[in-house]
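Subgroup meeting minutes
Present: P.N., E.W., G.H.
Scribe: E.W.

1. P.N. recapped why we're keeping a running log of single-chain structure predictions: easier to compare across weeks, and new members can see raw inputs and outputs side by side.
2. G.H. added today's entry (906 aa).
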Amino acid sequence: MSAKRFTLLLFIFISSFTKVFAQRDTIGIKTIVTKTAQYINAYPIEKVYLHLDKPYYTAGDTIWFKAYVTIDRHQPTVLSNIVYVDIANEQDSLVKILKLPVVNGVANGNILLPPDVYKQGNYHLRAYTQWMRNFDTDYYFNKNITIGNAIQENINSAIDFKKNTSTANKPVAVIAYKETGGAPVSNRKISWSIVNTNGDELAKGKGTTDAAGNYTVSLADATNLQNATLVANLETGKKEKLDRFSLKGAGAGYDIQFFPEGGELTMGVRSRIAYKAINSNGLGIDVKGTVTDNTGAIIANIQPQHLGMGAFVLLPEDGKSYKANVTFPDGSSQVFDLPRIRPSGISMSVYDADAANLGIKLSANEPYFNANKDKVYYIIAQNGGAIYFAAQTALNTQSYSANIPKDKFPTGVLQLSLMSERGVILAERIVFIQHNDELNLSLNTDKKVFTTRQKVRLGVLAKKGAAPVSGNFSVSVVDESKVPFDEDNENTILSNLLLTSEIKGYIEKPNYYFLSKNANAAADLDILMLTQGYRRISYRNIILNKLPQITLQPEQNGLQLSGMIRNTSAVPVPKANLRIQIPIKKYFAETLTDMDGNFRFTKLDFPDSADITLNARGNINSRNLVITVNGEPYQPATKNVNAGDEIPDIDNAFKDLLANSKKQYDNTHTLKEVVIKAKAIVKKPSHTDYSALTGLPMMADQVVSGERFKDCPNLYICVQTALLGVFVENNNMYLSKNMSNSNKLPVQIFVNGQPVDYSFLNTIAGKDVETIEVFKTDGVSSLNRVYQSDGIVSIITKKLPVGQKVTYQQLQDMLPKGNIITFKGLGYAVAREFYSPKYDVLKQGAFGGDLRSTIYWNPKVKTDKTTGATSLEFFNADGRGTYRATIEGFDADGNLGRYIYRYTVK
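Output recorded in log:
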């Protein structure tokens, strides 16, 4: 070993280390390791991954999925017994929320996609546990789901952004309208507006489509396009076609960022600098350029490597400054300053090319070395919060090098931190350790070529090395001629649990790094590690005992229901008797409120939207009692972190699948005779129907139709994300303009003209809503002064038709609720069984009738512990071409696996 090399001591070998530091504020390495271990034990990391039957869908289809919920090193979770799956539209409004029971770390479910609810567009699918909600939402399972609609959409639309050379390159949006067959929708009237996230109108206009079916909207007057939406209404002769287009792609065209290895550049220390160049949609772009110093000399060249990422080497010299001269794909160029250079510092470089070892090099420049000679430094390496390596050394030379065997670390993202003896992070670097040690899964059939509707017997085999494995898996078989796959861009159990769930920010084409066919994948993955952020664990916070604020506990006792009983004077009532009844489950129980009037029912089990009745009539003075139910702990919709995966031109991208979807729908739906009769104009319900709301502005700032809430279990969950410019905090609704105001007043909510609190919305099912109106001001009504509020929301529920006989129960439902309430509970979603038809080979039937794109889905595949094998049977559809079978899953030890098998149908 040379004089400039040193031996890093593994923590396992320095357990007796008792060095006493001269300074009182130093931190021992054993203290850091011990505190980190205590932290990860107290705050374990859960993850959720969803295996979907296919990557994109059409309206009328079903999303089939299996949830894998893991903890620690990908073992089946023992922490949470409930997983949440939700889907939001492009306006970040929740469309569907599912709650599923987790057994042995897995759950399965499905989401129906009715054509009238799921308009064509890009949707945001999430999955998480209640425990995960205490931490950053970036670490949820997040996936962009594209849904085409060939059933409702007879006219297809697409948007393209261009620069108008006649107006100083100001951006314009070109909307193209075409009929399903491809004919342009010409000479049709169109009106449009541009709105921000609060619903404020930034610009508007109207006009007519040209002969090619195009209409151009000038965006010159709109500001902050990244967060704006273009709303376009096209007159079709039958009903208006409403489209909402995000304008984030119309903003600044390109950007580039530079990332010095370890965090910062140091004078006199040779460093690798990675860069990432992206377009306005967040996708990588290839750029070229040079790095020059202040004399104009070329120091390095910028060459594209992978998805807009690359790296070059720089040795900063005293008295010099550096710039990057970058040329973008459209030929435009720009000059960028490189990150600042520290006059004194120490850096850490990591070399990952060796299959067996990680090379680490510490480099201090002369001023830093002279000021810190012989001081102690730590190097700590952790994966998933668990420390696998810890070492210390004294700074007695300017340059140190060492190798760390990679077999000390598990597969996945490894964070290496250089730390001073005071616990201050001086440099950090993440690398990806790849052992290729996943489960050895395989699928096979007795032949590679089948006929349509023929039975397929699919054999499954799972091994770890050469040993058979008992595992829990899911299998999907898809007609690849209808659903082509972009393998590089797939979201898999490996790419998600090992990579994307560990790193913040969007990762383009994550599966590329896990495909053996890509010879440069390892080098490209190392560049990705240099450009991505990683802050799941903060040593500084651990050392200072700055622990996360936990507001939600893991759900381990099934479904729960809680609330409070008060009297009509709003005083909590202790020791009050309360009965719960869930008719569909034939369940009945009683409890008593505590001394603060709170009640709680635990270990409940009921399906979604089940009727639940709470009854407090058995108490003294029960007429004066009021029951309030705490709302469900739902997670508001968040921005789609994978917005880069959104497909703007769905009609062209999924042309074959949409055509197949239309055929499927036409085959199963027969049009009935329609008789058109004159219909009297009916006045729409509004706030003007209620005397208590007299004086409010005639026109509401926002009106939301009850159709929007058709699939909403209750308004408490859905209303926040459906209304623009509002947020909910501590069971109160506020206008977004007051978000940073410490003395903010809540919005006052009215239901059919009666004032209610936000918790009351838990008793209103979405299907019962007629309309919701939002008022940012109270006009001349003085309602804000009376109720000490800022803003009014009026909710109007559906009424019984005039002339219809009212039953006693219907009358009770219309009366204000008090000591007895009935509401729809958000219970477990009922998972449907995938229908797989069985065909008689001798009776093939008419060819072409079975147009399924998902041929088979089974989320409950388990292999035998002795042989590691099992088998599945299903029948092919009428589609000819290549069928793609995918298996994913894990075993009880957290070993992950994935395999793809293809066969031909003729």
